[in-house]
Amino acid sequence: MTDLSPDQLATYRSTQTAPDGFDDFWAGTLAEAAEHDIEVRLSEVPTGLRTISTYDVTFRGYAGQDVRAWLRVPAHTTGPLPAVVQYVGYGGGRGHALQNLLWASAGFAHLQMDTRGQGAGWSLGVTPDQAPSSPQVPGVMTRGILDPATYYYRRMFTDAVRAVDAARSLDVVDNSRIAVLGGSQGGGNAIAVAGLRSDLAAAVAFVPFLCDFPRALAVTESYPYKEIIDYLMVHRTEVEPVHRTLQFFDGVTFASRATAPALFSAALRDTVCPPSTVYGAFHEYGGEKEIEVWPYNGHEGGGILDEERALAFLRGRLGPST
């Protein structure tokens, strides 16, 4: 194992604290975004599939900027259906129209959000990050990191909240049965959205990233967290403003404000998102919660078994999908 023992994880608590003004910061950020109509635009994409209909989606996210997504629904359905809003791991985008068919195949409306400024590391993306540049380590972890107002994840988390609004606007979606889901960075997004919204039916976070920054920066030498370490190796006098910014984006604090039932997963040999950081958020989570632990896995976590477990979990929380 690469981190704390299971007994230690059971009692571990993060040292992260919510900064003064956390709730006002996010209320103001989301109020600014809400000044722009969500303006969901759909265009059906011919995929050759008989059982799933796929749509290219554009909606207005942070600052009214366009964010892309895929919507996949069971073919020939009129709804309303329970919905899964999914977020993508670090470096990835929404991918190809023929990828990620599980949720629609299981009968859910599936909205998969693209990731602004990413989508070239391992999975295709098309949404730019429209923000002024500043000195940063390659990647997005230090983009605008000296101020919460300019930090990259302010824009991404706002997009993620707005993706739920986009799903709610669709006739095919049952607004009372919407869940958020993701792994790694996508799991961090799911926790943030669960902490910022009170209208979710469930949340799923596989081996979530962006949790318990103080612990992560102390124990891991793996990227993407190491982007922040690399930055501070050069910007030696900026430790305090960097850590202050990160306080506004920590899954530990979002988790404490969440109420939707949640399923987490953690892997005890994960050096990318050490299990103690996952437990830091899990123990603070404010709603009903459970966690699946994979003792012999790294950042891949449970892989398809995580998805199998999530499918059963979401059926139990969202009800029948047809």
From TrEMBL:
Residues of the Acetyl xylan esterase domain: 2-315
Pfam families in the record: AXE1
Name of this chain's protein: Acetylxylan esterase
Species, as recorded: Paractinoplanes hotanensis
